[in-house]
Design a protein that fits this description.
single chain, 147 residues, alpha+beta, Aminopeptidase, 4-stranded antiparallel β-sheet, 8 strands, 33% strand
Length: 147
């Protein structure tokens, strides 16, 4: 069973923030072998959706308000721990992310910068390609939009 929370940056405890940054580094830096600056000064304006299993962070996404990255709201840093992959937690995380971003910012288009290999995953939620593939930190990405 997963316990879900969504908090603004100022509502996060130091331990919650540490676990978020630790898991983001575990997935995006170590697992994907990608050296990049994860702390990008957007966390302070974002909402942080977390999924906890037995006091361990296993799922996370960052919900970005309109105007911070794109004109539209955005969902980023979407990840699940290796311990819950292939258990549909990623699907639950994404659906909760969409629902929460609509709750926070109203039902309006969403724009994401998705890793290209996850294109079909995001299409299953109704996202459509909104640009040509582009490299970001050595990984092919694609802009996708949900109207």
């Amino acid at each position: 069973m997963i316990t879900w929370t969504c908090k603004s940056f100022t509502q996060l405890s130091p331990a919650e923030l540490y676990n978020i940054l630790k898991l983001r580094n575990e997935i995006f830096v170590v697992e994907q072998d990608c050296v990049y600056q994860d702390c990008d000064d957007k966390d302070q304006e974002a909402w942080h959706l977390t999924g906890w299993q037995q006091n361990r962070l296993v799922a996370y996404s960052r919900l970005l308000p309109p105007g911070l990255v794109y004109e539209d709201p955005s969902i980023g840093r979407v990840l699940t721990s290796l311990t819950v992959r292939r258990t549909r937690v990623g699907r639950e995380l994404m659906q909760r992310s969409i629902d929460k971003i609509y709750e926070l910012f109203g039902k309006r288009p969403l724009l994401i910068g998705a890793q290209l290999y996850l294109k079909n995953f995001y299409e299953s939620f109704g996202f459509v390609q909104a640009g040509e593939p582009y490299p970001e930190d050595g990984i092919e990405h694609i802009k996708m939009k949900l109207n």
